[in-house]
Write a structure and sequence with these properties.
The longest helix is centred in the last third of the chain and has 21 residues. The radius of gyration is 24 Å and the shape is flat. By secondary structure, it is an alpha/beta fold. The strands form 3 sheets. It has a 5-stranded mixed beta sheet with strand order 2-1-3-10-4. Strands 7-6-8-5-9 form a 5-stranded mixed beta sheet. Helix content is 26%, strand content 31%. The protein binds phosphoribosyl ATP and zinc ion.
Length: 284
């Protein structure tokens, strides 16, 4: 029995999805144009698909789990559950207007034509804000719609913002934040469910590791307690005397997000020789 996972064949989620599986120790050969490779050392079968097809394949039971952008799920809800958000493929669905156009609130778009590939999300968003606009669905190159006179505004996915900028558009509203998510079919056999648990355990360890750093530093013994208090570690930090009299070595794990702020405070408190290391896996 194998767990069948659907991931994007080519595109913005493809590398992140295969990299995540590899970091989980699930290797597979991607070459030879094989559409359904099997993992080498794990009971997993992989389907490479277009991202838009992934929720359907999972809902229909062709695959058991899949990796897809939350934006795709929000546009077309399917009978799948989000098990875990994966932290890559981050983007937002925004509304943008031509740079020179006036804009104050969403009501500025009342009666205007908005071009988008996300008509369902947009329709709901405008309805929720009691603004009536003309949602015009187009499947690609949304950003050129205003310049060719097809729309007054657009709603498209944005990550760096450079596509909007180079098309003379200005981002004015965020409709939805999105990232890649692991989805599953609600009903799975007990055997497949057990394999999924193993995959999830590995994914969570990898994710925890990438959100944390291992920090080592030297502190004068008389300042060690004050310095240790600055380390919001998982548990209280490890302290070990150094060969050099009057100094201790302190080890701890800190959150990636807190990192620069904590390092600044540690230096001010008298820490020296600060080393920060990435963590490969973090087993809770
Ligand atoms: O062939 P297939 O159907 O599988 O791929 P696709 O072309 O439909 O999707 P793809 O690979 O472009 O995107 C897959 C998923 O990546 C999306 O569903 C999102 O969840 C996520 N994602 C993250 C993005 C972006 N960032 C993104 N920037 N998807 C698209 N874009 C596009 C956006 O539409 C615009 O054209 O990138 C452009 C804007 O980028 P910036 O950096 O200039 O702002
Ligand atoms: Zn697609």
């Amino acid at each position: 029995m194998k767990l069948r996972i659907a991931i994007q064949k080519q595109g913005r989620l493809a590398d992140g999805s295969t990299a995540l599986l590899k970091r989980c120790g699930i290797g597979f050969s991607n070459g030879l144009g094989k559409l359904r490779p099997e993992a080498e050392d794990f009971p997993l079968e992989i389907f490479f698909l277009r991202d838009d097809d992934i929720p359907d394949y999972v809902a229909d039971g062709v695959a058991d789990i899949g990796i897809v952008g939350e934006n795709v799920l929000a546009e077309q809800p399917k009978n799948v559950e989000v098990v875990e958000r994966l932290g890559f493929g981050r983007c937002r669905l925004s509304i943008a207007v031509p740079k020179g156009d006036e804009y104050s609130t969403l009501a500025s778009l009342s009666g205007k034509r908005i071009a988008t590939s996300y008509p369902n999300i947009l329709t709901k968003y405008f309805a929720a804000n009691s603004v009536e606009a003309n949602i015009h669905e187009i499947s690609g190159s949304v950003e050129i719609a205003p310049s060719i006179g097809l729309a007054d505004a657009v709603s498209d996915l944005v990550s760096s913002g450079s596509t909007l900028f180079s098309n003379g558009l200005r981002e004015v509203e965020t409709v939805l934040e999105s990232q890649a998510a692991l989805i599953r079919r609600p009903e799975l056999s007990a055997e497949v469910e057990a394999i999924l648990d193993q995959v999830l355990f590995r994914i969570r360890s990898v994710r925890a590791a990438s959100q944390n750093k291992y920090i080592l530093l030297n502190a004068p013994t008389d300042k060690a307690d004050a310095i240790a208090k600055l380390l919001p570690g998982i548990k209280s930090p490890t302290m070990m005397p150094l060969a050099e009299e009057g100094w201790v070595s302190i080890h701890s794990v800190i959150k990636q997000n807190d990192f620069w702020e904590v390092v600044d405070r540690l230096k001010q408190a008298g820490a020296e020789g600060i080393l920060v290391l990435s963590i490969d896996q973090m087993i809770g």
